[in-house]
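In response to the reviewer comment on reproducibility (Comment 2.3), we provide here a single inverse folding case reported in full, input and output, so that an independent group could reproduce the run without further information from us. The structure tokens appear first.
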């Protein structure tokens, strides 16, 4: 809901609080990474998305999200590898199909 209202700062605060309570929750790391990327905090976004993948390496959407951050950072070969992994995990993953 905060995302729809354009309150990314508040979302980040909330995600950080949730991570304090549930540090092993891959989805929270992923969501925080997306929010950080929206703010242009790409290194932090990368770190959170990597953490999400360490906890849940079979999540195609997490790989695609990391690929998006890597693309924005100009790390194209690494991004393509993430998109390919998303497709390997889920051959019908639409977001990766349109990018790779």
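Designed residues, in position order:
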């Amino acid at each position: 809901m905060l995302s729809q209202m354009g309150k990314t700062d508040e979302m980040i605060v909330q995600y950080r609080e949730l991570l304090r309570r549930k540090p092993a929750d891959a989805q929270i790391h992923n969501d925080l990474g997306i929010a950080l990327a929206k703010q242009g905090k790409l290194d932090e976004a990368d770190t959170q998305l990597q953490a999400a993948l360490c906890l849940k390496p079979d999540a195609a959407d997490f790989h695609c999200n990391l690929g998006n951050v890597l693309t924005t950072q100009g790390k194209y070969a690494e991004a393509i590898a993430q998109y390919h992994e998303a497709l390997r995990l889920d051959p019908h993953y639409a977001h990766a199909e349109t990018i790779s």
